[in-house]
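Justification of computing resources. Each target in the renewal requires a structure prediction run like the one illustrated here; the chain below, 627 residues long, is used simply to show the kind of job we budget for.
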Amino acid sequence: MSWFLWLLTQWPSSALSLLLLSVVGLEVVQAILCSRWGVPRNKSLSQDGDVIIGGLFNLYYIPSAVEQGFIELPHYEPCTGLDLEPLKYTYAMVFAVEEINRNSTLLPGVKLGYHILDSCSRYPWALQAGGQPVPLLIAAASSTTGIMLSRILGPLSVPFISYLASCPCLSDRTKFPNFFRTIPSDIYQARAMAQLAIRFHWTWMGAVVENNDYGQLAIQVFQEEIQGKGVCLEFVETLQRENIVSDARRAALTIQASTTRVILIFCWYTDVKKVFLELTKINVTDRQFLASEAWSTSDDLLQDLTISEVANGVLGVAIRSSTIPGFENYLRRLHPINRPDDEFLRDLWKKEFGCTTLPPCSGTESLEGVQHPFTDTSQLRVAYNVYLAVYAAGHALHSLLSCPDTDSPPGNNSSTCFSPKHIQPIELLHHLNKVNVTTPQGEMFYFQGADIPAKYDLVNWQKTPEGPLKLVLIGRVEGFNLHLNESAIQWSTGSNQVPVSVCSESCPPGTRKANRKREPLCCFDCIPCADGEISNKTGSLHCERCPSDFWSNVEKTACVPRQLDFLSFNETLGITLTTAAVSGAAVTTAVFVVFLYYRKTPMVRANNSELSFLLLLSLKLCFLFLE
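Resulting C-alpha coordinates:
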Protein backbone atom coordinates (compact mmCIF):
# COMPACT_ATOMS: atom_id res chain seq x y z
CA MET A 1 0.00 0.00 0.00
CA SER A 2 2.83 2.42 0.72
CA TRP A 3 3.87 2.37 -2.96
CA PHE A 4 0.48 3.70 -3.93
CA LEU A 5 0.46 6.30 -1.14
CA TRP A 6 3.83 7.50 -2.39
CA LEU A 7 2.55 7.60 -5.94
CA LEU A 8 -0.31 9.74 -4.73
CA THR A 9 2.20 12.40 -3.67
CA GLN A 10 4.11 12.11 -6.95
CA TRP A 11 1.16 12.38 -9.33
CA PRO A 12 -0.73 15.53 -10.45
CA SER A 13 -4.12 16.21 -8.88
CA SER A 14 -5.89 15.50 -12.18
CA ALA A 15 -5.30 11.79 -11.58
CA LEU A 16 -6.39 11.96 -7.96
CA SER A 17 -9.82 10.42 -8.48
CA LEU A 18 -8.44 7.56 -10.56
CA LEU A 19 -5.78 6.85 -7.98
CA LEU A 20 -8.30 6.85 -5.17
CA LEU A 21 -10.33 4.29 -7.08
CA SER A 22 -7.19 2.18 -7.36
CA VAL A 23 -6.53 2.46 -3.64
CA VAL A 24 -10.13 1.56 -2.83
CA GLY A 25 -9.78 -1.42 -5.14
CA LEU A 26 -6.65 -2.47 -3.29
CA GLU A 27 -8.47 -2.30 0.02
CA VAL A 28 -11.03 -4.69 -1.42
CA VAL A 29 -8.23 -6.93 -2.64
CA GLN A 30 -6.67 -6.89 0.82
CA ALA A 31 -9.99 -7.97 2.31
CA ILE A 32 -10.11 -10.84 -0.16
CA LEU A 33 -6.52 -11.74 0.69
CA CYS A 34 -7.35 -11.98 4.37
CA SER A 35 -10.49 -14.05 3.90
CA ARG A 36 -9.67 -16.22 0.91
CA TRP A 37 -6.02 -16.14 -0.07
CA GLY A 38 -4.34 -16.10 3.31
CA VAL A 39 -1.82 -13.56 4.57
CA PRO A 40 1.12 -12.76 2.24
CA ARG A 41 4.58 -13.70 3.42
CA ASN A 42 6.62 -10.79 4.78
CA LYS A 43 9.96 -12.11 3.58
CA SER A 44 11.89 -9.69 1.44
CA LEU A 45 15.37 -8.84 0.20
CA SER A 46 16.47 -5.22 0.25
CA GLN A 47 19.45 -2.99 -0.33
CA ASP A 48 19.41 0.75 0.18
CA GLY A 49 20.44 3.13 -2.57
CA ASP A 50 19.86 6.49 -4.23
CA VAL A 51 17.29 4.87 -6.53
CA ILE A 52 15.37 1.77 -5.43
CA ILE A 53 14.16 -0.74 -8.03
CA GLY A 54 11.29 -3.02 -7.05
CA GLY A 55 11.36 -6.76 -7.76
CA LEU A 56 8.59 -9.35 -7.61
CA PHE A 57 9.23 -13.09 -7.99
CA ASN A 58 7.32 -16.34 -7.34
CA LEU A 59 9.79 -17.70 -4.80
CA TYR A 60 7.57 -20.21 -3.00
CA TYR A 61 5.32 -23.02 -4.17
CA ILE A 62 1.56 -22.95 -4.10
CA PRO A 63 0.53 -26.02 -2.05
CA SER A 64 -1.97 -28.46 -3.49
CA ALA A 65 -5.41 -27.03 -2.84
CA VAL A 66 -8.07 -28.96 -0.98
CA GLU A 67 -11.34 -29.60 -2.77
CA GLN A 68 -13.57 -26.57 -2.25
CA GLY A 69 -17.27 -26.91 -1.47
CA PHE A 70 -20.07 -24.41 -1.92
CA ILE A 71 -21.20 -24.00 1.67
CA GLU A 72 -18.34 -21.80 2.90
CA LEU A 73 -15.69 -19.43 1.58
CA PRO A 74 -12.72 -21.25 0.00
CA HIS A 75 -9.54 -21.43 2.05
CA TYR A 76 -6.02 -21.46 0.67
CA GLU A 77 -2.99 -22.61 2.60
CA PRO A 78 0.13 -20.40 2.76
CA CYS A 79 2.87 -21.04 0.24
CA THR A 80 5.71 -23.24 1.44
CA GLY A 81 8.83 -24.65 -0.15
CA LEU A 82 11.48 -22.54 -1.83
CA ASP A 83 11.59 -22.69 -5.63
CA LEU A 84 15.23 -22.66 -6.72
CA GLU A 85 14.69 -21.38 -10.27
CA PRO A 86 12.96 -18.10 -9.29
CA LEU A 87 15.54 -17.76 -6.51
CA LYS A 88 18.20 -17.77 -9.20
CA TYR A 89 16.25 -15.04 -11.02
CA THR A 90 16.22 -13.01 -7.79
CA TYR A 91 19.98 -13.14 -7.44
CA ALA A 92 20.39 -12.34 -11.13
CA MET A 93 18.68 -9.04 -10.31
CA VAL A 94 20.88 -8.52 -7.26
CA PHE A 95 24.00 -9.38 -9.26
CA ALA A 96 23.08 -6.95 -12.06
CA VAL A 97 22.43 -4.13 -9.58
CA GLU A 98 25.79 -4.71 -7.88
CA GLU A 99 27.51 -4.92 -11.27
CA ILE A 100 26.02 -1.58 -12.33
CA ASN A 101 27.08 -0.02 -9.02
CA ARG A 102 30.68 -1.08 -9.77
CA ASN A 103 30.48 0.36 -13.28
CA SER A 104 32.15 3.77 -13.47
CA THR A 105 30.48 4.77 -16.73
CA LEU A 106 26.90 3.68 -16.09
CA LEU A 107 25.11 5.82 -13.45
CA PRO A 108 28.34 7.33 -12.05
CA GLY A 109 27.79 8.73 -8.59
CA VAL A 110 24.39 7.06 -8.27
CA LYS A 111 23.90 3.92 -6.23
CA LEU A 112 21.13 1.54 -7.21
CA GLY A 113 19.19 -0.32 -4.56
CA TYR A 114 16.46 -2.94 -4.66
CA HIS A 115 13.46 -4.17 -2.74
CA ILE A 116 12.42 -7.71 -3.68
CA LEU A 117 9.26 -9.53 -2.57
CA ASP A 118 7.64 -12.93 -3.12
CA SER A 119 4.20 -13.19 -4.79
CA CYS A 120 3.82 -16.99 -4.51
CA SER A 121 2.17 -17.14 -7.99
CA ARG A 122 -1.00 -15.65 -6.49
CA TYR A 123 -2.29 -12.71 -8.43
CA PRO A 124 -3.73 -10.63 -5.54
CA TRP A 125 -0.41 -10.88 -3.71
CA ALA A 126 1.23 -9.12 -6.64
CA LEU A 127 -0.88 -6.07 -5.80
CA GLN A 128 0.53 -5.99 -2.27
CA ALA A 129 4.09 -5.62 -3.46
CA GLY A 130 4.56 -2.66 -1.12
CA GLY A 131 7.06 -1.62 1.47
CA GLN A 132 9.04 1.15 -0.23
CA PRO A 133 8.21 3.65 -2.97
CA VAL A 134 9.89 2.69 -6.24
CA PRO A 135 9.94 4.48 -9.61
CA LEU A 136 10.28 1.21 -11.56
CA LEU A 137 9.30 -2.41 -11.00
CA ILE A 138 10.78 -5.63 -12.38
CA ALA A 139 7.95 -8.10 -12.02
CA ALA A 140 5.25 -10.27 -13.57
CA ALA A 141 6.19 -13.93 -13.80
CA SER A 142 2.88 -14.43 -15.60
CA SER A 143 0.83 -12.58 -18.17
CA THR A 144 -2.15 -12.23 -15.83
CA THR A 145 0.04 -10.54 -13.21
CA GLY A 146 1.45 -8.30 -15.93
CA ILE A 147 -2.02 -7.24 -17.04
CA MET A 148 -3.12 -6.52 -13.46
CA LEU A 149 -0.02 -4.49 -12.58
CA SER A 150 -0.11 -2.55 -15.84
CA ARG A 151 -3.74 -1.58 -15.36
CA ILE A 152 -3.06 -0.43 -11.80
CA LEU A 153 0.21 1.40 -12.54
CA GLY A 154 -0.59 2.51 -16.11
CA PRO A 155 -2.65 5.59 -15.22
CA LEU A 156 0.26 6.69 -13.01
CA SER A 157 2.83 6.14 -15.80
CA VAL A 158 4.94 3.94 -13.51
CA PRO A 159 6.97 1.65 -15.80
CA PHE A 160 7.61 -1.98 -15.07
CA ILE A 161 9.62 -4.58 -16.96
CA SER A 162 8.53 -8.20 -17.07
CA TYR A 163 10.92 -11.09 -17.52
CA LEU A 164 8.28 -13.78 -18.17
CA ALA A 165 4.89 -12.25 -19.18
CA SER A 166 4.60 -13.24 -22.83
CA CYS A 167 0.91 -12.68 -23.69
CA PRO A 168 0.54 -11.05 -27.14
CA CYS A 169 -2.11 -8.75 -25.68
CA LEU A 170 0.55 -6.91 -23.68
CA SER A 171 2.09 -5.54 -26.89
CA ASP A 172 -0.86 -3.15 -27.22
CA ARG A 173 0.59 0.24 -26.25
CA THR A 174 -2.84 1.87 -26.14
CA LYS A 175 -3.88 -0.44 -23.29
CA PHE A 176 -0.51 -1.05 -21.61
CA PRO A 177 1.65 2.04 -22.24
CA ASN A 178 3.88 1.44 -19.20
CA PHE A 179 4.63 -2.24 -19.88
CA PHE A 180 7.97 -3.55 -21.15
CA ARG A 181 9.37 -7.06 -21.31
CA THR A 182 12.59 -8.89 -22.02
CA ILE A 183 10.82 -12.05 -23.21
CA PRO A 184 9.32 -12.29 -26.72
CA SER A 185 5.59 -12.26 -27.34
CA ASP A 186 3.93 -15.69 -27.49
CA ILE A 187 2.98 -14.98 -31.09
CA TYR A 188 6.45 -16.13 -32.09
CA GLN A 189 6.59 -19.34 -30.06
CA ALA A 190 3.01 -20.29 -30.97
CA ARG A 191 3.82 -19.78 -34.63
CA ALA A 192 7.02 -21.81 -34.26
CA MET A 193 5.02 -24.68 -32.73
CA ALA A 194 2.50 -24.49 -35.57
CA GLN A 195 5.38 -24.65 -38.06
CA LEU A 196 6.72 -27.76 -36.30
CA ALA A 197 3.31 -29.43 -36.46
CA ILE A 198 2.99 -28.69 -40.18
CA ARG A 199 6.59 -29.68 -40.89
CA PHE A 200 6.22 -33.10 -39.23
CA HIS A 201 2.69 -33.66 -40.63
CA TRP A 202 1.08 -33.84 -37.17
CA THR A 203 -2.50 -33.25 -38.25
CA TRP A 204 -4.13 -34.60 -35.07
CA MET A 205 -2.97 -33.06 -31.79
CA GLY A 206 -4.11 -32.47 -28.22
CA ALA A 207 -3.44 -29.48 -25.97
CA VAL A 208 -3.14 -28.87 -22.22
CA VAL A 209 -3.06 -25.19 -21.25
CA GLU A 210 -2.94 -23.09 -18.12
CA ASN A 211 -6.29 -21.52 -17.34
CA ASN A 212 -4.94 -17.97 -17.45
CA ASP A 213 -3.96 -15.35 -20.02
CA TYR A 214 -0.73 -17.14 -20.85
CA GLY A 215 -2.33 -20.47 -21.71
CA GLN A 216 -5.60 -19.29 -23.24
CA LEU A 217 -4.14 -16.64 -25.52
CA ALA A 218 -1.17 -18.80 -26.55
CA ILE A 219 -3.46 -21.65 -27.69
CA GLN A 220 -5.65 -19.09 -29.45
CA VAL A 221 -2.66 -17.87 -31.48
CA PHE A 222 -1.67 -21.48 -32.20
CA GLN A 223 -5.16 -22.29 -33.50
CA GLU A 224 -5.10 -19.21 -35.73
CA GLU A 225 -1.77 -20.34 -37.19
CA ILE A 226 -2.94 -23.89 -38.00
CA GLN A 227 -6.27 -22.79 -39.47
CA GLY A 228 -6.50 -23.97 -43.06
CA LYS A 229 -3.20 -25.90 -42.74
CA GLY A 230 -4.77 -29.34 -42.19
CA VAL A 231 -4.00 -29.52 -38.45
CA CYS A 232 -6.74 -30.18 -35.87
CA LEU A 233 -6.91 -30.31 -32.08
CA GLU A 234 -8.66 -33.36 -30.67
CA PHE A 235 -9.02 -31.75 -27.23
CA VAL A 236 -7.98 -28.71 -25.17
CA GLU A 237 -7.68 -29.38 -21.43
CA THR A 238 -7.22 -26.49 -18.97
CA LEU A 239 -5.41 -26.55 -15.63
CA GLN A 240 -6.26 -24.31 -12.68
CA ARG A 241 -3.27 -23.94 -10.38
CA GLU A 242 -5.43 -23.84 -7.26
CA ASN A 243 -7.03 -27.18 -8.25
CA ILE A 244 -4.02 -28.73 -9.90
CA VAL A 245 -4.40 -32.22 -8.38
CA SER A 246 -7.86 -32.91 -9.78
CA ASP A 247 -7.19 -31.00 -13.01
CA ALA A 248 -3.96 -32.92 -13.66
CA ARG A 249 -5.74 -36.23 -13.12
CA ARG A 250 -8.50 -35.22 -15.54
CA ALA A 251 -5.97 -34.11 -18.17
CA ALA A 252 -4.04 -37.38 -17.84
CA LEU A 253 -7.17 -39.46 -18.35
CA THR A 254 -8.06 -37.38 -21.41
CA ILE A 255 -4.60 -37.97 -22.88
CA GLN A 256 -4.89 -41.71 -22.19
CA ALA A 257 -8.27 -41.93 -23.95
CA SER A 258 -7.23 -39.84 -26.94
CA THR A 259 -6.06 -41.16 -30.30
CA THR A 260 -3.55 -38.38 -30.87
CA ARG A 261 0.12 -39.08 -30.27
CA VAL A 262 1.34 -35.46 -30.01
CA ILE A 263 0.34 -33.25 -27.07
CA LEU A 264 1.01 -29.51 -26.90
CA ILE A 265 1.41 -28.09 -23.36
CA PHE A 266 1.30 -24.39 -22.44
CA CYS A 267 1.75 -24.56 -18.63
CA TRP A 268 4.12 -23.72 -15.80
CA TYR A 269 6.60 -26.51 -15.06
CA THR A 270 5.22 -27.36 -11.61
CA ASP A 271 1.81 -28.03 -13.18
CA VAL A 272 3.34 -30.08 -15.99
CA LYS A 273 5.05 -32.22 -13.36
CA LYS A 274 1.66 -33.01 -11.79
CA VAL A 275 0.31 -34.10 -15.18
CA PHE A 276 3.38 -36.26 -15.89
CA LEU A 277 3.11 -37.92 -12.48
CA GLU A 278 -0.52 -38.78 -13.22
CA LEU A 279 0.47 -40.18 -16.63
CA THR A 280 3.16 -42.27 -14.94
CA LYS A 281 0.55 -43.77 -12.60
CA ILE A 282 -1.57 -44.97 -15.54
CA ASN A 283 1.49 -45.98 -17.60
CA VAL A 284 1.00 -43.63 -20.55
CA THR A 285 4.51 -43.40 -22.04
CA ASP A 286 3.86 -43.33 -25.78
CA ARG A 287 3.04 -39.66 -26.31
CA GLN A 288 5.20 -37.01 -27.92
CA PHE A 289 5.04 -33.73 -25.99
CA LEU A 290 5.56 -30.30 -27.51
CA ALA A 291 6.69 -27.87 -24.79
CA SER A 292 6.26 -24.13 -24.40
CA GLU A 293 9.09 -22.01 -23.02
CA ALA A 294 7.53 -22.07 -19.52
CA TRP A 295 8.71 -25.67 -18.91
CA SER A 296 10.88 -26.78 -21.82
CA THR A 297 14.13 -26.24 -19.86
CA SER A 298 13.04 -27.14 -16.33
CA ASP A 299 15.78 -28.91 -14.38
CA ASP A 300 13.17 -30.07 -11.91
CA LEU A 301 11.51 -32.12 -14.66
CA LEU A 302 14.71 -33.21 -16.41
CA GLN A 303 16.24 -34.60 -13.20
CA ASP A 304 13.12 -36.42 -11.99
CA LEU A 305 13.59 -40.13 -12.73
CA THR A 306 9.96 -40.85 -11.85
CA ILE A 307 8.68 -39.11 -14.97
CA SER A 308 11.61 -39.78 -17.31
CA GLU A 309 9.74 -42.41 -19.36
CA VAL A 310 6.81 -40.05 -19.90
CA ALA A 311 8.97 -36.99 -20.61
CA ASN A 312 11.52 -38.67 -22.89
CA GLY A 313 11.73 -37.05 -26.32
CA VAL A 314 10.05 -33.74 -25.42
CA LEU A 315 10.46 -31.19 -28.20
CA GLY A 316 10.26 -27.62 -26.99
CA VAL A 317 10.59 -23.94 -27.69
CA ALA A 318 12.89 -22.35 -25.09
CA ILE A 319 13.85 -18.85 -24.08
CA ARG A 320 17.19 -18.26 -25.75
CA SER A 321 20.20 -19.05 -23.59
CA SER A 322 22.97 -16.60 -22.82
CA THR A 323 25.85 -16.17 -20.40
CA ILE A 324 26.43 -13.76 -17.53
CA PRO A 325 30.18 -13.63 -16.80
CA GLY A 326 30.93 -13.99 -13.11
CA PHE A 327 27.40 -15.01 -12.14
CA GLU A 328 28.26 -18.63 -11.31
CA ASN A 329 31.06 -17.62 -8.93
CA TYR A 330 28.72 -15.08 -7.38
CA LEU A 331 26.11 -17.75 -6.66
CA ARG A 332 28.68 -20.15 -5.24
CA ARG A 333 30.03 -17.51 -2.86
CA LEU A 334 26.61 -16.72 -1.38
CA HIS A 335 26.51 -17.55 2.35
CA PRO A 336 24.21 -16.54 5.23
CA ILE A 337 27.24 -15.40 7.24
CA ASN A 338 27.92 -12.69 4.66
CA ARG A 339 24.22 -11.84 4.23
CA PRO A 340 22.64 -12.13 7.69
CA ASP A 341 19.50 -10.23 6.65
CA ASP A 342 18.85 -12.38 3.57
CA GLU A 343 15.76 -14.42 4.46
CA PHE A 344 15.66 -16.22 1.12
CA LEU A 345 19.25 -17.38 1.51
CA ARG A 346 18.45 -18.73 4.99
CA ASP A 347 15.57 -20.71 3.48
CA LEU A 348 17.96 -22.06 0.84
CA TRP A 349 20.35 -23.22 3.56
CA LYS A 350 17.46 -24.84 5.40
CA LYS A 351 16.35 -26.61 2.23
CA GLU A 352 19.79 -27.83 1.20
CA PHE A 353 21.65 -28.26 4.52
CA GLY A 354 18.79 -28.69 6.99
CA CYS A 355 19.61 -25.70 9.19
CA THR A 356 17.99 -22.31 9.72
CA THR A 357 20.54 -20.55 11.89
CA LEU A 358 24.27 -20.86 12.13
CA PRO A 359 24.43 -22.64 15.51
CA PRO A 360 22.75 -25.77 14.08
CA CYS A 361 25.03 -25.35 11.06
CA SER A 362 28.74 -25.90 11.30
CA GLY A 363 29.41 -22.75 9.27
CA THR A 364 31.38 -24.73 6.70
CA GLU A 365 28.36 -25.44 4.51
CA SER A 366 29.02 -23.96 1.09
CA LEU A 367 27.80 -24.07 -2.49
CA GLU A 368 31.34 -23.93 -3.82
CA GLY A 369 32.58 -27.09 -5.45
CA VAL A 370 29.11 -28.65 -5.36
CA GLN A 371 27.05 -29.65 -8.40
CA HIS A 372 23.72 -28.03 -7.73
CA PRO A 373 20.87 -26.74 -9.95
CA PHE A 374 20.96 -23.38 -8.16
CA THR A 375 24.58 -22.75 -9.17
CA ASP A 376 24.23 -24.18 -12.68
CA THR A 377 24.63 -21.25 -15.10
CA SER A 378 25.33 -23.27 -18.24
CA GLN A 379 21.99 -22.23 -19.74
CA LEU A 380 20.74 -18.96 -18.32
CA ARG A 381 17.38 -18.09 -19.79
CA VAL A 382 14.85 -16.35 -17.53
CA ALA A 383 17.71 -15.25 -15.28
CA TYR A 384 19.25 -13.52 -18.28
CA ASN A 385 15.90 -11.84 -18.99
CA VAL A 386 15.97 -10.44 -15.43
CA TYR A 387 19.57 -9.34 -15.96
CA LEU A 388 18.57 -7.53 -19.17
CA ALA A 389 15.64 -5.87 -17.39
CA VAL A 390 17.95 -4.42 -14.73
CA TYR A 391 20.32 -3.11 -17.38
CA ALA A 392 17.42 -1.58 -19.32
CA ALA A 393 16.37 0.18 -16.11
CA GLY A 394 19.95 1.26 -15.48
CA HIS A 395 20.39 2.80 -18.91
CA ALA A 396 17.01 4.55 -18.73
CA LEU A 397 17.97 6.02 -15.35
CA HIS A 398 21.38 7.01 -16.73
CA SER A 399 19.70 8.83 -19.61
CA LEU A 400 17.27 10.53 -17.22
CA LEU A 401 19.80 11.57 -14.58
CA SER A 402 22.50 12.88 -16.89
CA CYS A 403 22.48 15.65 -19.50
CA PRO A 404 25.17 17.50 -21.47
CA ASP A 405 27.10 20.06 -19.47
CA THR A 406 27.52 23.23 -21.51
CA ASP A 407 30.90 23.89 -19.89
CA SER A 408 32.20 20.41 -20.53
CA PRO A 409 33.75 19.01 -23.72
CA PRO A 410 31.28 17.39 -26.18
CA GLY A 411 30.29 13.89 -25.16
CA ASN A 412 30.95 14.44 -21.45
CA ASN A 413 27.59 13.95 -19.71
CA SER A 414 28.52 14.91 -16.19
CA SER A 415 25.72 17.10 -14.83
CA THR A 416 22.43 15.86 -13.46
CA CYS A 417 19.09 16.87 -14.94
CA PHE A 418 17.08 15.30 -12.11
CA SER A 419 17.83 14.39 -8.52
CA PRO A 420 17.74 10.62 -7.86
CA LYS A 421 15.45 11.31 -4.91
CA HIS A 422 12.85 13.09 -7.05
CA ILE A 423 12.48 10.93 -10.11
CA GLN A 424 9.20 11.36 -11.96
CA PRO A 425 7.90 7.96 -13.21
CA ILE A 426 6.58 9.50 -16.42
CA GLU A 427 10.05 10.86 -17.23
CA LEU A 428 11.62 7.47 -16.57
CA LEU A 429 8.96 5.87 -18.78
CA HIS A 430 9.87 8.27 -21.58
CA HIS A 431 13.58 7.38 -21.36
CA LEU A 432 12.85 3.64 -21.10
CA ASN A 433 11.06 3.83 -24.45
CA LYS A 434 14.29 5.08 -26.04
CA VAL A 435 16.69 2.50 -24.56
CA ASN A 436 19.05 1.24 -27.26
CA VAL A 437 22.30 -0.09 -25.84
CA THR A 438 24.90 -2.82 -26.05
CA THR A 439 24.96 -5.27 -23.12
CA PRO A 440 28.22 -6.36 -21.44
CA GLN A 441 27.95 -9.50 -23.61
CA GLY A 442 28.07 -7.37 -26.77
CA GLU A 443 24.39 -7.83 -27.65
CA MET A 444 22.33 -4.99 -29.10
CA PHE A 445 19.34 -4.42 -26.85
CA TYR A 446 16.36 -2.21 -27.58
CA PHE A 447 12.59 -2.13 -27.21
CA GLN A 448 10.16 -2.25 -30.12
CA GLY A 449 7.24 -0.77 -28.25
CA ALA A 450 6.84 -3.17 -25.33
CA ASP A 451 8.83 -5.97 -26.95
CA ILE A 452 12.34 -6.99 -27.81
CA PRO A 453 13.35 -8.80 -31.06
CA ALA A 454 12.17 -12.41 -30.81
CA LYS A 455 14.78 -15.15 -30.37
CA TYR A 456 14.24 -18.70 -29.10
CA ASP A 457 16.14 -21.96 -28.82
CA LEU A 458 14.65 -25.27 -29.96
CA VAL A 459 15.47 -28.06 -27.49
CA ASN A 460 15.02 -31.81 -27.18
CA TRP A 461 14.97 -34.02 -24.06
CA GLN A 462 17.12 -37.09 -24.57
CA LYS A 463 17.99 -40.13 -22.46
CA THR A 464 21.38 -40.52 -20.84
CA PRO A 465 23.11 -43.66 -19.52
CA GLU A 466 23.06 -42.12 -16.02
CA GLY A 467 19.26 -41.95 -15.96
CA PRO A 468 18.18 -38.28 -15.95
CA LEU A 469 17.22 -36.68 -19.22
CA LYS A 470 19.52 -34.15 -20.84
CA LEU A 471 18.70 -30.99 -22.74
CA VAL A 472 20.01 -30.89 -26.31
CA LEU A 473 19.94 -27.80 -28.53
CA ILE A 474 18.52 -28.75 -31.94
CA GLY A 475 17.73 -25.40 -33.55
CA ARG A 476 16.62 -21.83 -33.08
CA VAL A 477 13.85 -19.40 -33.91
CA GLU A 478 14.55 -15.87 -35.10
CA GLY A 479 11.42 -13.81 -35.54
CA PHE A 480 9.10 -15.97 -37.62
CA ASN A 481 11.94 -18.05 -39.12
CA LEU A 482 12.60 -21.58 -37.86
CA HIS A 483 16.00 -23.29 -38.20
CA LEU A 484 15.99 -26.96 -37.20
CA ASN A 485 18.47 -29.87 -37.26
CA GLU A 486 16.05 -32.81 -37.63
CA SER A 487 18.76 -35.46 -37.55
CA ALA A 488 19.69 -34.49 -33.97
CA ILE A 489 16.20 -35.13 -32.57
CA GLN A 490 15.50 -38.16 -30.38
CA TRP A 491 11.76 -38.78 -30.34
CA SER A 492 9.60 -40.26 -27.59
CA THR A 493 9.83 -43.63 -29.32
CA GLY A 494 13.58 -43.63 -28.69
CA SER A 495 14.38 -43.56 -32.40
CA ASN A 496 15.01 -40.94 -35.06
CA GLN A 497 11.70 -41.80 -36.75
CA VAL A 498 9.20 -38.94 -36.61
CA PRO A 499 6.06 -39.99 -34.67
CA VAL A 500 2.86 -40.24 -36.70
CA SER A 501 -0.14 -38.41 -35.28
CA VAL A 502 -3.14 -38.34 -37.60
CA CYS A 503 -6.85 -38.92 -37.14
CA SER A 504 -7.05 -40.57 -40.58
CA GLU A 505 -4.26 -41.76 -42.83
CA SER A 506 -3.85 -39.75 -46.02
CA CYS A 507 -5.99 -41.03 -48.85
CA PRO A 508 -3.82 -42.78 -51.49
CA PRO A 509 -4.10 -42.02 -55.23
CA GLY A 510 -7.23 -43.51 -56.68
CA THR A 511 -9.38 -42.39 -53.75
CA ARG A 512 -10.84 -39.14 -52.45
CA LYS A 513 -11.54 -37.70 -49.00
CA ALA A 514 -15.04 -37.91 -47.57
CA ASN A 515 -15.53 -35.96 -44.35
CA ARG A 516 -17.20 -37.72 -41.47
CA LYS A 517 -20.37 -36.18 -40.16
CA ARG A 518 -19.95 -34.09 -37.00
CA GLU A 519 -16.19 -34.75 -36.83
CA PRO A 520 -13.19 -32.44 -37.47
CA LEU A 521 -11.91 -32.02 -41.00
CA CYS A 522 -8.82 -34.06 -40.10
CA CYS A 523 -11.02 -37.14 -39.65
CA PHE A 524 -12.28 -38.60 -42.93
CA ASP A 525 -12.84 -41.76 -44.98
CA CYS A 526 -11.18 -42.65 -48.27
CA ILE A 527 -13.70 -43.42 -51.04
CA PRO A 528 -12.50 -45.15 -54.27
CA CYS A 529 -13.04 -43.11 -57.42
CA ALA A 530 -15.90 -44.24 -59.69
CA ASP A 531 -15.27 -45.84 -63.12
CA GLY A 532 -14.08 -43.22 -65.58
CA GLU A 533 -12.70 -40.98 -62.75
CA ILE A 534 -9.20 -40.71 -61.31
CA SER A 535 -7.12 -39.05 -58.55
CA ASN A 536 -3.38 -39.07 -59.13
CA LYS A 537 -2.10 -37.57 -55.86
CA THR A 538 -2.26 -38.33 -52.15
CA GLY A 539 -5.04 -36.66 -50.19
CA SER A 540 -7.22 -35.66 -53.14
CA LEU A 541 -10.48 -33.94 -52.26
CA HIS A 542 -12.16 -34.83 -55.58
CA CYS A 543 -11.89 -37.36 -58.38
CA GLU A 544 -11.47 -36.00 -61.93
CA ARG A 545 -13.45 -37.39 -64.88
CA CYS A 546 -11.47 -38.73 -67.85
CA PRO A 547 -11.92 -37.22 -71.38
CA SER A 548 -14.50 -38.86 -73.66
CA ASP A 549 -11.96 -40.98 -75.59
CA PHE A 550 -10.27 -42.19 -72.39
CA TRP A 551 -11.09 -44.43 -69.46
CA SER A 552 -9.65 -44.86 -65.93
CA ASN A 553 -7.15 -47.62 -65.29
CA VAL A 554 -7.75 -50.34 -62.72
CA GLU A 555 -6.09 -48.35 -59.91
CA LYS A 556 -8.11 -45.21 -60.86
CA THR A 557 -4.87 -43.22 -60.92
CA ALA A 558 -4.58 -42.40 -64.65
CA CYS A 559 -6.70 -42.04 -67.78
CA VAL A 560 -5.89 -44.44 -70.64
CA PRO A 561 -7.26 -44.55 -74.25
CA ARG A 562 -10.40 -46.62 -74.66
CA GLN A 563 -9.71 -50.15 -76.03
CA LEU A 564 -11.66 -51.24 -79.21
CA ASP A 565 -12.74 -54.93 -79.26
CA PHE A 566 -13.87 -56.78 -82.49
CA LEU A 567 -15.98 -59.93 -82.76
CA SER A 568 -14.53 -62.97 -84.49
CA PHE A 569 -16.57 -65.21 -86.83
CA ASN A 570 -15.12 -68.17 -84.96
CA GLU A 571 -16.62 -67.15 -81.63
CA THR A 572 -20.05 -68.29 -80.48
CA LEU A 573 -21.36 -64.74 -80.21
CA GLY A 574 -19.96 -63.91 -83.66
CA ILE A 575 -21.55 -66.99 -85.22
CA THR A 576 -24.87 -66.24 -83.51
CA LEU A 577 -24.95 -62.59 -84.61
CA THR A 578 -23.85 -63.46 -88.17
CA THR A 579 -26.53 -66.13 -88.48
CA ALA A 580 -29.18 -63.74 -87.18
CA ALA A 581 -28.04 -60.97 -89.53
CA VAL A 582 -27.93 -63.21 -92.62
CA SER A 583 -31.29 -64.75 -91.77
CA GLY A 584 -32.84 -61.34 -91.14
CA ALA A 585 -31.44 -59.96 -94.40
CA ALA A 586 -32.65 -63.01 -96.36
CA VAL A 587 -36.16 -62.87 -94.88
CA THR A 588 -36.36 -59.12 -95.48
CA THR A 589 -35.21 -59.59 -99.08
CA ALA A 590 -37.77 -62.33 -99.65
CA VAL A 591 -40.60 -60.16 -98.31
CA PHE A 592 -39.37 -57.26 -100.39
CA VAL A 593 -39.44 -59.42 -103.56
CA VAL A 594 -42.94 -60.66 -102.77
CA PHE A 595 -44.19 -57.12 -102.19
CA LEU A 596 -42.51 -55.97 -105.37
CA TYR A 597 -44.11 -58.79 -107.41
CA TYR A 598 -47.58 -58.04 -106.06
CA ARG A 599 -47.19 -54.28 -105.93
CA LYS A 600 -50.25 -53.61 -108.08
CA THR A 601 -52.60 -55.75 -106.06
CA PRO A 602 -55.19 -54.00 -103.87
CA MET A 603 -53.74 -55.50 -100.65
CA VAL A 604 -50.24 -54.14 -101.22
CA ARG A 605 -51.51 -50.81 -102.40
CA ALA A 606 -53.80 -50.55 -99.36
CA ASN A 607 -50.72 -50.95 -97.10
CA ASN A 608 -48.99 -47.89 -98.56
CA SER A 609 -46.56 -49.71 -100.84
CA GLU A 610 -43.99 -46.87 -100.97
CA LEU A 611 -43.68 -46.79 -97.18
CA SER A 612 -43.50 -50.59 -96.96
CA PHE A 613 -40.71 -50.74 -99.53
CA LEU A 614 -38.79 -48.06 -97.58
CA LEU A 615 -39.18 -49.95 -94.28
CA LEU A 616 -38.12 -53.24 -95.79
CA LEU A 617 -35.07 -51.63 -97.40
CA SER A 618 -34.12 -50.04 -94.10
CA LEU A 619 -34.45 -53.34 -92.23
CA LYS A 620 -32.28 -55.05 -94.81
CA LEU A 621 -29.58 -52.43 -94.49
CA CYS A 622 -29.69 -52.77 -90.68
CA PHE A 623 -29.08 -56.50 -90.90
CA LEU A 624 -26.27 -55.92 -93.40
CA PHE A 625 -24.60 -53.38 -91.10
CA LEU A 626 -24.90 -55.86 -88.24
CA GLU A 627 -22.80 -58.24 -90.24
